[in-house]
Amino acid sequence: MKKVQVPWARRNHGFTLMFEAYVMTLLELEMSPGAVADLVKVYPQRVWEVFNHYVGRAKSQSDHSGITEVGIDETSKRKGHDYVTVGVDLPQSRVFKVVEGKDAAAVRALAGHLEAQGSPPGEVRQVCIAMSPAFISGVMDAFVNAKITFDRFHVMKEVNKALNELRKAEQKECKELKRHKYTLLKNPENLTDKKQAELADLLQLYPKIGEGYRLKTLFREFWQFDHPAKAGRFLKDCCKQAVKSGIFPFQKTVNTIKAHWSGIVNFIKSQITNSILEGINSKIQLAKKRARGYRNVNNFINTIYFLCGKLNFSYPRVFI
């Protein structure tokens, strides 16, 4: 008996190309690999083999040259387990590389990938990151000509953290504050009419909470400036008022802001944020929820490419 290669199947894989295309189409329709395996009556590992083959082939054909603005963030394959670092081409809103870990070495690996793709890291002009010491170190080492922008989301997260710590301290004597965490943390435009009325009452009844909320509002206004010098002066005044308030959580936040000053003010020039990364992270979190976490980090990494890499797949198209 002699084995021959046939045009309608891959060598030694046991499935026809149309069956593999059917599997990939189901995955594109956001079914989990486990659900697809149940539907087509095969072991989940067989589905993952098909999936990883086509994702790997599409990755190898992707063009990541000419990237000048990069966003970097981290995520885990399961809650608190095995982090990966995601590199995003911000103008194209696509993931260009995912590497294991969340340290400076991971950032250098992103730069190494760009170098190999004919996109020298020295040509990257802007990098948007969270205020992570490891990421800062990695960017300064690997993207030597890039200016850092600290993501607005993470800066305001520090401000909201200060307001929430103040609320927790005050609620020891004012139990009413316990159920109003998100009344204070949400932006007022996102509150219902009822919650806006409750917010107004809280700010009037609890002066310290009112002062903390005023400071939060001040820091929000910083992001509306379009002139770096004016923005810097405004932020300096915000910090001065926060220190003068005597509210310890906000004084801590001022120290954090001062330690990351240039990257925060640089936002006014660069106008880049990790909002694209936040959208990508939302897709990743939804995939994790459907899969109930990932045991295999390679499967997890390829899922990120599949969802967020804007890959071009070569399997036949199946209409369902």
Provide structural commentary.
This protein has 320 residues and is of the alpha/beta class. Among the domains are: 69-151 and 273-292, Nucleotidyltransferase, domain 5; 152-269, no CATH class. It has helices at residues 17-28, 33-40, 44-60, 104-116, 133-142, 152-170, 181-185, 193-205, 207-222, 228-245, 248-259, 261-270, 275-291, 297-308; strands spanning 69-78, 81-89, 94-100, 126-129, 147-150. β2 and β3 form a beta hairpin. The radius of gyration is 24 Å and the shape is globular. The mean pLDDT is 91.
Mean pLDDT: 91
Helix content: 55-70%
Question: Can you count the beta strands?
Answer: 5
Shape type: globular
State the low-pLDDT regions, or none. Answer: none
Q: Major sheet: size, sense and barrel closure?
A: 5 strands, mixed
Helix/strand-derived category reads alpha/beta
| Fraction in beta strands | 5-15%
Q: In angstroms, what is the radius of gyration?
A: 24 Å
Question: What is the overall number of helices?
Answer: 14
Strand order of the largest sheet: 3-2-1-4-5
Q: Could you give the distance between the termini?
A: 38 Å
Order of helices and strands: HHHEEEHEHEHHHHHHHHH
Task: Provide a short characterization of the protein structure.
With 320 residues, the protein is α/β, with parallel strands linked by helices. The protein has helices at 17-28, 33-40, 44-60, 104-116, 133-142, 152-170, 181-185, 193-205, 207-222, 228-245, 248-259, 261-270, 275-291, 297-308, and strands at 69-78, 81-89, 94-100, 126-129, 147-150. Strands 3-2-1-4-5 form a five-stranded mixed beta sheet, sandwiched between helices.
